[in-house]
Amino acid sequence: MAVSWSCLHHRDLDKYALYQVLRLRCEVFVVEQRCPYQDVDGQDLDGDTHHLLGYEDGVLLAYLRLLAPAEPGAAPTIGRVITAPAGRGRGLGHALLEQGLIACKRLWPGQSLYLSAQAHLQGYYGRYGFRAEGEVYLEDGIAHVDMRRPG
Questions:
Q1: What are the sequence ranges of the domains in the chain?
Q2: CATH code reported for the domain at 4-149
Q3: DSSP readout, the chain?
């Protein structure tokens, strides 16, 4: 079965989809990665936030969040990039990021993109044109690095 992708503005995200998103993020980021942090950060339903969802047979297997630029001249942000344990090992992470880049190009054409990557994933994001900016830092006890992709 193929994964079906949808990129939804937060106004179009129904409560069931939002529940699946929050459940998956908690399952992986909080429980699996043992990182207690405030995942529900007030940005999921804010401004021009979009959510990219990848479903197979009604199950959310891949997700990322797209935040509009916070101010003029700032870059849109890709975050909360996640593949469910049941979807791993099938290239879904690559398909997810490719779909995310397509959505960003449609939503914010010609703009550079920003993300805060777990440091061990620099090579993964580098394959898509992201380059590290600055030094590695700890965020919620996990090494991260800021990365940017030119527009």
A1: 4-149
A2: 3.40.630.30
A3: -PPEEEEEEGGG--HHHHHHHHHHHIIIIIIITT-------S-TTSTT-EEEEEEETTEEEEEEEEEPPSSTTPPPEEEEEEE-GGGTTTTHHHHHHHHHHHHHHHHSTT--EEEEEEGGGHHHHHTTT-EEEEEEEEETTEEEEEEEE--
